[in-house]
Design a protein that fits this description.
Blueprint: E1 27-31, E2 36-41, E3 47-52, E4 56-60, E5 65-70, E6 77-82, E7 88-93, E8 97-102, E9 108-113, E10 120-123, E11 129-133, E12 139-143, E13 148-152, E14 165-170, E15 177-181, E16 202-206, E17 213-217, E18 219-224, E19 230-235, E20 249-254, E21 259-264, E22 273-276, E23 282-286, E24 289-294, E25 300-305, E26 310-312, E27 318-322, E28 329-334, E29 339-345, H1 350-364, E30 376-379, E31 382-385, E32 401-404, E33 407-411, E34 417-421, E35 426-431, E36 437-442, E37 448-453, E38 459-464, E39 473-476, E40 485-487, E41 493-497, E42 503-507, E43 510-517, E44 524-529, E45 535-540, E46 545-549, E47 554-558, E48 569-572, E49 578-582, E50 586-591, E51 597-602, E52 610-615, E53 621-626, E54 636-641, E55 647-652, E56 658-663, E57 669-674, E58 679-683
Parallel strand pairs: 29-31
Antiparallel strand pairs: 1-58, 2-3, 3-4, 4-5, 6-7, 7-8, 8-9, 10-11, 11-12, 12-13, 14-15, 15-16, 16-17, 18-19, 19-20, 20-21, 22-23, 23-24, 24-25, 26-27, 27-28, 28-29, 30-31, 32-33, 33-34, 34-35, 36-37, 37-38, 38-39, 40-41, 41-42, 42-43, 44-45, 45-46, 46-47, 48-49, 49-50, 50-51, 52-53, 53-54, ...
Length: about 700
């Protein structure tokens, strides 16, 4: 197969990590590469493409470094796949635009609009069709050359649509399309089951040109035989009722006749993967114990404990990808010999890319020359391949906070708090790496506090980040998990908003009896403490903003508005005398002492809804960030003169909602965090008197 190197777009010489690639005007750095929605290895195994909030990133497998960045004009790529010959790559974005691009030139070969592939996208082997699964569980087949939809796949009655397609693939010959629909239980806001008759995981096989269903069975994690005649998948234990369903069996179907030809029942736990041998005579399946089956006789050929995720090479040798417990490596083993073949360190792309690379590396081992890959090391006789680790931010807000003028801190997914070196535009260190940090703050004296919530538990722990071995306080927080919260600037309080109105404030020195602020009647969108920590302002879905006295535990006043509006962003000025509130069509400034409206800044029609707000350290300027609205390609970050209400400058950069803003202590830089999964740094010294 020809090695098709991606066209090198937006590459900046000397910047190997892409921190300054395709930056918007006024930005000096981008931290994070955007929320990763999909990652695919090229058919020849030399490159992989990452669909992200920024655009389509290309990486060289041997170097484990980015080499190109495509489609930055809009970004928000949610799905990607390659044609079987590696000539084309297909992408879809949040705006329901699908593009087929030439890998070597980046040229758009075909484009279709109004077609969503939010969940999955897949190329057929003939290169003519694309299968899509949208956010409502609808599967379609598109003829990209003619720009039409061939068929919508028949799922039967689907009263409660949802993003439930977990796997979507064409058969190797392209004559069948298969998908697994999860059919999950859906709940009302008051936790009532809306669809009690859900079927659970179901795998469908369709005719791609007609949408007609050929096979449907209770199961998942399917695989085709190389000749496309057979389909195998994890299947339900038919001795159990639906309420106790465990997919610990394996069913094999002849998709040419629509009949099940085998059903294996030897596993004791959930089957997580199946694989056909190249000859089509044998099938391997695993539930952390790997079993190999003879399809002709239905007999079990062999059992291999402690092996996972099987695959065969063309020579018929059985391998397994193993994920050791409490380790950051993925291993490949020759199952019959019990020999470890290679290791891959965990990193970008997660387990999906790691497994693809493990198979690719295993395939090339017999032909490997004495020249090593640049990402290869050797541990004894075992090659160890390093995968690039890059910070990822939790949705919706990375929550960037300045430590000092040279240092920025942000949350990360599963790896604590990232500390960024701003002049060097790189990660300096990671703090609390073993904790899932829910929120954190930097106090005026530089001390950092962090809050970690315990998953599926109502326990909250607060840490002094300088002393990560022991939390400084632990308390029960029996409120809605997805919550807005904020530390007071004094480090004395933690305030948390609920989904139904009450605001809980814990004194971290005496957390046993939280202060409960009652008055709001709906979801709490925003909270902000005054600089002295004595007052709290809140915004709610009940269309009010309220000011509270924390020490007294009472409401001071509802802040005035001309008409009911939802304040989705609130912030105090550095002096504590002004409160800013961001709403759908305006930013309102209130006097925190007289409780009157000082000024109203109206928002332009095309970018109105304001969530993120931040005062400059001098208090003379206010920054605001907008949420996405239909038709917008870039979000606005506006700088305002507080005294006059004048919009003195507007930056355009993020592809999706601006969630938070923060000025550096000297007021020369502004950090913006976005739902797209990036933090941008903006140079503002030319526009404000810092």
């Amino acid at each position: 197969m020809q090695n098709r190197k991606p066209a090198p777009f937006n590459v900046v010489a000397g910047d190997t990590m892409g921190t300054t690639w395709a930056l918007p005007e006024g930005a000096i750095a981008r931290f994070g590469k955007g929320d990763r929605s999909d990652v695919k290895l090229s058919p020849d195994g030399t490159y992989f493409a990452v669909a992200s909030g920024v655009g389509l990133w290309w990486y060289d497998v041997a170097l484990m470094l980015p080499i190109s960045l495509w489609e930055t004009e809009r970004g928000l790529i949610n799905s990607v796949d390659f044609s079987h010959d590696g000539k084309w790559v297909v992408i879809s974005n949040w705006d329901q635009v699908i593009k087929v691009l030439d890998v070597q030139t980046g040229e758009c070969v075909y484009q279709m609009e109004g077609q969503s592939a939010f969940a999955h996208i897949a190329f057929s082997s003939n290169g003519k069709w694309i299968a899509t699964a949208d956010g409502r569980g609808v599967v379609k087949v598109l003829d990209v050359q003619r720009g039409v939809c061939l068929a919508q796949m028949d799922r039967g009655t689907h009263e409660w649509p949802g993003n439930d397609i977990s796997q979507l693939e064409f058969s190797p010959d392209g004559r069948r399309l298969t998908a697994t629909a999860q059919n999950p239980k859906l709940y009302s806001p008051d936790d009532q089951v809306l669809n009690p008759d859900t079927e659970g995981d179901q795998t469908y096989v369709w005719h791609p040109e007609t949408g007609e269903a050929i096979v449907k069975f209770a199961g998942r994690d399917f695989a085709f035989s190389s000749d496309s005649r057979l389909l195998a998948g994890a299947a339900a234990d038919e001795t159990l009722n639906d309420a106790n369903r465990i997919d610990r069996c394996v069913s094999v179907w002849d998709v040419t006749t629509g009949k099940r030809i085998a059903h294996f029942t030897g596993h004791s736990d959930w089957v997580n993967a199946v694989a056909f041998s190249p000859c089509g005579q044998f099938l391997a399946s695993s539930d952390r114990t790997l079993r190999e089956w003879d399809l002709a006789t239905g007999a079990q050929r062999a059992v291999y404990p402690n092996f996972d995720r099987p695959f065969y090479l063309k020579d018929g040798i059985l391998y397994a990808v193993v994920f050791p417990d409490d380790a950051d490596t993925i291993e490949t083993w020759n199952v019959e010999k019990g020999e470890k073949i290679l290791e891959i360190s965990d990193g970008i792309g997660g387990t999906g890319l790691a497994k693809s690379l493990a198979i690719a590396y295993t395939q090339e081992q017999p032909q490997q020359s004495t020249e090593k890959r640049s990402n290869e090391q050797v541990n004894g006789n075992i090659p160890v391949y390093a995968m690039l680790r890059e910070p990822r931010f939790p949705l919706p807000d990375p929550q960037a906070i300045w430590v000092d003028d040279q240092t920025l801190a942000s949350k990360s997914i599963g790896r604590g708090i990232i500390v960024w070196d701003v002049p060097q535009k790189c990660v300096r260190e990671t703090l609390m790496a073993d904790e899932n940090i829910h929120s954190f703050t930097v106090l005026p004296e530089g001390k950092m506090l962090a809050n970690s919530g315990v998953f599926l538990d109502d326990t909250t722990k607060v840490w002094d980040v300088d002393y990560p071995d022991t939390s400084i306080v632990e308390f029960g927080a029996d409120i809605w998990w997805e919550r807005h919260e904020v530390f007071s600037p004094t480090g004395e309080y933690l305030a948390v908003g609920s989904k139904d109105g009450p605001v809980y404030v814990w004194n971290l020195n005496q957390p046993e009896h939280p202060i409960v602020l009652t008055g709001h009647t709906d979801y709490i969108w925003a909270l902000a403490f005054s600089p002295d920590g004595k007052q709290l302002v809140t915004g709610s879905d009940d269309e009010t903003a309220r000011l509270w006295d924390i020490e007294a535990g009472r409401e001071i006043s509802t802040l005035p508005m001309d008409e009911p509006r939802v304040p989705i962003g609130v912030v105090f000025s550095p002096c504590g005398k002004i409160v800013a509130g961001g709403m759908d069509d305006e930013i309102r400034l209130w006097c925190a002492e007289q409780l009157t409206t000082l000024r109203i800044m109206s928002q332009p029609e095309n970018s109105r809804r304001t969530y993120a707000l931040a005062f400059s350290p001098c208090g003379k300027y206010l920054a605001s960030g907008t949420w996405w609205q239909k038709g917008m390609e870039k979000m606005a970050i506006r700088l305002w003169n507080v005294a006059t209400g004048e919009n003195i400058y507007t930056f355009w950069g993020h592809n999706s909602d601006v969630q938070s803003l923060a000025f550096s202590p000297n007021g020369t830089l502004l950090a913006s965090s976005s739902f797209e999964g990036t933090i941008l740094l903006w140079d503002v010294k030319s526009f404000i008197d810092a």
